[in-house]
Amino acid sequence: MSDTRISGPPSQSIGPQMNRRALLKAGLATGGAAIAAGTLTGTAQAGGDPLITEIQDWNRYLGDGVQASPYGVPSEFEAHVVRRDVEWLTASTESSVNFTPLHALDGIITPNGLCFERHHGGIAEINPADHRLMINGLVDTPLVFTMEDLMRFPRENRVYFLECAANSGMEWRGAQLNGCQFTHGMVHCVMYTGVPLKLLLEEAGVKTAGKWVMPEGADASAMTRSIPMDKALDDCLVAFKMNGEALRPEQGYPLRLVVPGWEGNMWVKWLRRLEIGDEPWHQREETSKYTDLLETGKARRFTWVMDAKSVVTNPSPQAPVGHGKGPLVISGVAWSGNGRIKRVDVSIDGGRNWQTARLDGPSLSKAMHRFYLDIDWDGSDLLIQSRAMDEEGFYQPTKNELRASRGENSIYHNNGIQTWHVKADGTVENVEVA
Ligand code: MTE
Ligand code: CO
What we know:
The chain has eight helices and 23 strands. The chain is mostly beta strands. The model is unreliable at 1-39 (pLDDT under 50).
């Protein structure tokens, strides 16, 4: 197995950071509280605006009472914020994918209803009372757990991103899909509640020869993968909750495996069995799929870790700039299967100069990180890029660097730098800079 990951310091120099004077000019300096609403953006007029001077219906009449929506749903004005698929991508919806609307979200947590879905045999519908988890193979005592049994083990809460290895796969050979939802939306980040896999394996007693774990799904695809014992004992969870509520059916209700930092395919949903063996099984999903064919004719396999990656979510093709020149909030997300994100640099000139972005919100290992760069846009064309670096020193390569090391046959593990062309009229396009 050849490791063609790219490590080391960034190859390009860091350009001058936006200084305090530039910020003051943009009216954005911290402590610059003198900024009056209206002068900052110049859109809303205090006088003569009927939305200010006239009483509106929502102000005049009583609204719906409590229990109008026993399980709350978003405002009707947010109806455009949905998962979307690309019809021509797959032959059927049962073995298909849809995408997280990254451009419409903020912070680091993905709302449950917006987590992208990837199924190989549709969504299994399982009554938790009928669900069983079996541990068999090289163990002292083969065991079968009900959901109730699992609730009696000590549990933990942890926030992790899940990225499909095929995320950005369409973009290997050039700019393809117009929107970060489609280019980068096979990722989500939620808080899982679950039992450390280690505790369940200890309960069964793994024999000395047991070096691999094979999780199996209860869905029609019966998804199986081989996971090395070290990883199983390190940080894997058998999870039943996401963001505090039960897993959604799409995400594997009632039980899924969480394999932090590793490719999404290994996070087996509707988890029904864990077999312990002395060697990997070489299942379909780790041979003909989820391997990377190199120029030499050899394929990389067992490329489990999802390396440092980032994308600017705003502006982006589905989130154009509507307000013209002046203060512009550039925002995006970054993540790494190697740990925390240490730094994200943003370029507005296609990678010639870089500014260090502001990381905001919790910085958790193997979780999404949120970054911002607040600029004063002069209204000219921008080529916006972001480049993440993780705490292990891995930085996000350019797409050309990736192609130089892996060739052009790959689909999986594209963590190359994305470029958005912001035009003077505020529209945004997916492009590549040579
Ligand atoms: N587990 C089962 N049982 N069946 C599946 O089709 N798809 C895998 C993985 N686990 C799959 C599965 C793939 S390829 C990915 S990327 C993730 O689940 C997607 O998880 P999500 O649907 O929660 O986004
Ligand atoms: Co996947």
